[in-house]
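Please describe what follows:
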Amino acid sequence: MVEKSHTAGLWPSIYEPFRNMGQRVAEWLAPASDASSDDRAYTITVELPGVAEKDIELSVHDGVVTVKGEKSDTREEKGDTWYFSERQYGAFSRSFRLPGDADPDNIEASLKDGVLSIKVPKRGPDSESAKKVQINKG
């Protein structure tokens, strides 16, 4: 019979806070966002302060809108006897699954004051995605 060491149960509890650290860092870098809709469109807004338009990639694939980019922010302060520099940087990515009535072919986006606004129109009830299928008699 093999006995368990008393310390064997201790190791998992010591490493537990670090287990999902990569995911927590990714969530910290992920920009805050909101989603809403009205009768005509879905609107997604993503906060991207300090991110240049050239550093943002917006794509649509298989009903998913993805915003990717690189965030870099630098703040520097100097005094007679002190110096302070603070930086935040890293790649980010946020994805949003579109509802079935969204029209991914006509998405519009704009960036103003560090906020990316994505407007996805809704399809009408008579759109090409809804077809009546003829039932043939056997």
In short: Residues 15 and 102 are 44 Å apart (CA to CA). The two ends are 70 Å apart (CA to CA).
